[in-house]
Amino acid sequence: ARLVQALGPQAADIVDFSARDWTHDRWSGGAYSDLxxxxxxxxxxxxxxxxxxxxxxxxxxxxxxxxxxxxxxxVAGRIAAGKIQSAIATSASGS
Length: 95
Hints:
There is one protein chain. This protein is mostly helical. The protein is built from 3 helices and no strands. The longest helix has 25 residues. The radius of gyration is 18 Å and the shape is flat. It has a domain of about 60 residues.
């Protein structure tokens, strides 16, 4: 919908879509992203997202959308910033 709004109705006509699992590609090792894919790490995201207040962590890998991409980092950063703002507001109202 945003592409249509920005570029016009032709943006809604999908010509092609390609998806690839790069997990086993020998040239993709060492990428900037480190998604948590170990099924035994059941609490990893929850622990990272809980942070250690007043410290909060933000990373594309724990983003609820676009994990592993810059867009995910932005989303995660906004969420962490919201937590920090809330903590500041709470401490300011309690003083």
